[in-house]
Structure formats: C-alpha cells, structure tokens
Amino acid sequence: MSKDWPLWEVFVRSRGGLSHRHVGSVHAPDAEIALRHARDTYTRRMEGVSLWVVPSAQIVASDPADDAAMFDPAADKVYRHPTFYSIPDDVKHI
Amino acid sequence: MASLPPIDLPRGATGAGAFDALAEGGENNVLFGFLLRLGDDSLILGQRLSEWTGHAPSVEVDLSLANIALDLVGQATHFLNHAGEVEGKGRDGDALAFRRDVLDFRNCWLVEQPNGDFAQTMARQLLFSGWQKLLFQALLGSRDATVAAVAEKAVKEVTYHEELAAEWVIRLGDGTEESRRRMQDGLEWMWRFVPELFDMDPLAAFVAEHGLGADLAALRPAWDRRVRSVIEQATLRVPADQRPILGGRRGHHSEHLGHLLCTMQFLPRTYPDATW
C-alpha cells in the first residue's frame, strides 16, 4: 500500500527561533495525512514545535556530476567567512 | 474471582439491589469503581491497538497506532494507580492491570472488540475517541483532583486520536470501492456498542451527582453532531441503531476480553518477580 503513496520531505523546527531542519521523509496519500505521519514519526519525543512537509517531487536538487563547478570555487575563499566579528554571548543560533 | 453478574436486569431492580453494597462502602468504593471504568477503557484499547505494531499498512501508520496505544496506556497507568490508592489495599496500577481477572474489568464492550481490518479499527477509534474527548472535557471540572489533572493532560491526546481517526474514516469512505465498503462495514460492526458509552447506570449517576464524574447522557448530542458530520464527509451512511449491548461496566464482557488478557497478563502472571 505504502508504495503507492507519494513521498514527502519533513522539516522540523525544534524550538522557537530556530530554522526548520530537514529530518527525513514519510509516505502519505495527501498533505494533511503527511503532516500527521510526520508528527507521529519525527516529533514523538518532543523534537519539535512546528512541522513542514513538502512533496519530494517538488525538490529541485543539484546534480552530483556538477559538484566541481558548483562547489569547489568556494573552497579557497576563506575571507567570505565573517569570522572577524565578535558576537555578544547573549546572541544564540547565528 | 467474582461470580458472573446478572445480565440486563430491569433498571428498577438494579437500582434497588446491586448498588446498595456500593453505597454502604461509601464514596470511596464508588470512586474506585468509577476509576476502574476510566482506566480499563484506556488500558484495553491501548492493548488492542498495540496488536497492530508491525502489521499496519505502512510504517508511518504503524507509528501512528503505536503512539495512540502508548497515550492510552499512559492514561490507564494514572487512573489505575489512583484507583489502587483509593481502594487502599496496597494494589497499584500494575497489580490492577495484570493480576485482575476478566469479570473484574469494567471497560466498555467497544474497546475490547477485535481490530478487524484497518477500517474497522478506525471506526472504533472515531466512535471511542470522540466520546473520550467529550468525557475528559467534562472531567476537567471533577471534584477529584487527580481525575481532573489526568483529564487535562489526556484531552489533548484524545483530541489528536479523534482527528486522526476522522481523517482516515473520511479518506477510506470517500476512497475506492473496496475501502468504502470496508469503512461502512466497520461502522456497522461497531455501532451496536455506542449506547453503552452513554449509559447512565446507578454508578454513573452517582458519580455525576456528586461532582466526580460526568453526565454521560448529556454528551450524546455533541457526539452525534461530530460523528454524523464525519460520516457525511466520508459520503457514508450513519448505521441504523441496533439492539444495544450493555454489561461491560458490570463485568459482563464479550469472549474477546479474556483472550486479550491472556496475552497481556501472561508474562507478569508467569514470572511474578519480573521487573520492567
């Protein structure tokens, strides 16, 4: 039965102030059931306060064959990291 | 073990006889019986649902059903531990769950019914969780602080159970020809056990009058509205009322409960020293 159901990617916001993070996927016949399946599969141990589900078919992914052109040029440009600022202790999650 | 209780005495007769003993035992004795009803409903349905583990239509549904089962067993633990305290004979929730015989269980017939197929399980869940939600909402005002506190925690759980069951009833009813047939069959099978949920027998009337329990009959209109609305959305028909089956609240059960208890109680009865 489940092989007939489309796949949905699941994103969980673990606490207020944090971004949603990809945690996995579920099978479900439609969006509402996908949310419930995501709730029952990925937040049963208090992992989250908010859920997103997205049809996996809607995800556009980069091609691994293009990795060199896509990602290697960033490898030697450390000056792009904003490591020279001092961040106050009170500021979390940056 | 208790002896087999009489089946469906005329209403006047039960009021005059059977519950005099309860009244003599005082309010605590009645409260104990009331807590057994609450705890046993959750316990037995939790055990039933756990039978789906590893057998559900998909791993996601497997988890949904196991989550509901765990919520229910958690409620049962609270209610039965409290029942043991009220009884005052040194029994805790585990003793009441695992060392009690079938005739001493006070759950309704609906929760002990076999799972059948997934549609039948969802039919039972919709009917039961819809009732339990209204019951726990009413129990928020119980004079018993523990009952009120458990109800407050549990009402959120059973609201989710009811919504999930409603979603499935609607999808299966308004689905394929086969899912529609199975969903209608599931509702027809479970419908005869509905009147017992709202039955105001002497104990239910006593706890309602004394501010411990809820007026069950008063919950019926809201339950009817909700369940009928779900069945309508599912494009199914509301089953015709059948001859009601009563007796679970007095320990008169279907043959299914004994088999369920065999599985559930086997380990602690065989190995009394086992810990977990």
Automatic annotation (TrEMBL), chain A:
InterPro entries, per database record: PaaB (IPR009359), PaaB_sf (IPR038693)
Identification of the protein by name: 1,2-phenylacetyl-CoA epoxidase subunit B
Species assigned in the record: Sphingomonas parva
Enzyme class: oxidoreductase
E.C. code: 1.14.13.149
Annotated keywords: Oxidoreductase
Single GO MF annotation: phenylacetyl-CoA 1,2-epoxidase activity
Superkingdom per UniProt: Bacteria
TrEMBL record, chain B:
GO terms for cellular component: cytosol
Highest taxon above the source species: Bacteria
GO process annotations (BP): phenylacetate catabolic process
Annotated InterPro entries: Aromatic_CoA_ox/epox, Ferritin-like, Ferritin-like_SF, PaaA_PaaC, PaaC
NCBIfam families per UniProt: PA_CoA_Oxy3 (TIGR02158)
Entry protein name: Phenylacetate-CoA oxygenase subunit PaaI
Record gene name: paaI
